Structure prediction request, 325 residues.
Amino acid sequence: MVGVSPEVPIDVLHCPYKTEELSHLSLGPNYARPNPNALRPIKHRKTQIQYHLKDINEKVRCQLKNYCNRESPAARMKEYSQLVENLLRQHYVAPLSYVDNMRAQREFKLVKSIRRKAQKAKLIIWVCDKGGGLHIENKSDYERKAAKYREDKNAYQELSYNPLMEILTNVTNALNALKNNKQLVLKDYNHLMPKLDLVRLSYMYFNRKPHKEETPLRPILNTIKAVTRPISDFLNELIRPIYDQYNQDYTIIDGVNLIKRLEKYAAGGHLKPSTLFCTFDINNLYTMLPQDESIRILGDFLHHYVRERVKNIWVAAFKNWPKLF
Prediction:
């Protein structure tokens, strides 16, 4: 009999985990108990409800604004928010049956045991790059591979101090200069100005690729709360529609768009038995693109298609934006 849960890739000589613990790990990072907070205090659970409710509401508003080009209707959003809150309360506060309560306690002990053994044996349990499963590796092997990646690419360096305040000061000064030079209106200036209590230093981590020989690492840059994240999102909102408009014949947006394009391609009589489909992968895209040259090309593109202004931003001012990153 073959189970539906994948086996956990293990890249260690001596694995300290029992079969029951490995079976639990094979459920993957997205596995959740019927009530994952059943063993936590009620105060903590109520805090989680409000946190997730706020997060969901903000994401829905952003989706409506970005993809439907409309503000969220207040009455419908209030009704939707109440529905989501009720579902969250059922998930976090509803009492468990005796069987589910025993199961939650058993799995809680399993997780504590897994964590304790990982710390003792200096193991790292992390999400795989493909498939969403978990992978077990020695901490020393992970650090060695990460150091080798940084050495080979010669694009990153390990920091000896936290430069967050330095970055914050530089971005603030650059935004002030843009505003004072009339290259940024007050509304956009206030929106882009970083908030000290909300920003975090960007960092790099790696996902494993157990489906490849020697389990290489895939670098991930976490910039969600970076000082320049609002600026990046702002520029994307300005430029993305222009790029999509003039490059739609050469751009595949997502899987649905690909299928529609293939259907159109086939309907035009171009799909034949001799047709070849090729895929390719680009390594280290962001480190291989020179920033100044990319900004120059972007400026040329905007000058060609929109001439002088993109909404409230002068195209000529884009040469100053690299100072913000």
